[in-house]
């Protein structure tokens, strides 16, 4: 299944701070307390995934190409590509 989202890398990796290794961010985008901590649960991770999909942070995208498309034309071609991905995944679900 293919998903078009600026917060999902082309290989499917999810760009969520709490899943990143603990410690300092070598790129300087995240504070240590925003990264993985042992207090996180499946629930906190799922809430982060839902938040990422509902309101993606365009400042640090995992899929730079999708982020660029979204910034340049959010209601045009990007939206059509997302709709195509949704239709394809719905078709796959019922095959």
From TrEMBL:
Domain UBC core as annotated: residue spans: 1-91
Pfam families according to UniProt: UQ_con
Highest taxon, organism lineage: Eukaryota
InterPro entries the record matches: Ub_conjugating_enzyme, UBC, UBQ-conjugating_enzyme/RWD
PANTHER family on file: UBIQUITIN-CONJUGATING ENZYME E2
Name of the protein in question: Ubiquitin-conjugating enzyme E2G 1b (UBC7 homolog, yeast)
Taxonomic lineage of the native organism: Eukaryota, Metazoa, Chordata, Craniata, Vertebrata
Gene designation per UniProt: LOC115159640
């Amino acid at each position: 299944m293919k998903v078009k989202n600026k917060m999902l890398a082309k290989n499917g990796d999810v760009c969520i701070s709490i899943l990143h290794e603990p410690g300092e961010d070598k790129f300087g985008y995240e504070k240590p307390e925003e990264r993985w901590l042992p207090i996180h649960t499946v629930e906190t991770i799922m809430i982060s995934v839902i938040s990422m999909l509902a309101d993606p942070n365009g400042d640090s995208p995992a899929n730079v190409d999708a982020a660029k498309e979204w910034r340049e034309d959010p209601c045009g071609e990007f939206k059509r590509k997302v709709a195509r991905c949704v239709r394809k995944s719905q078709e796959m679900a019922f095959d």
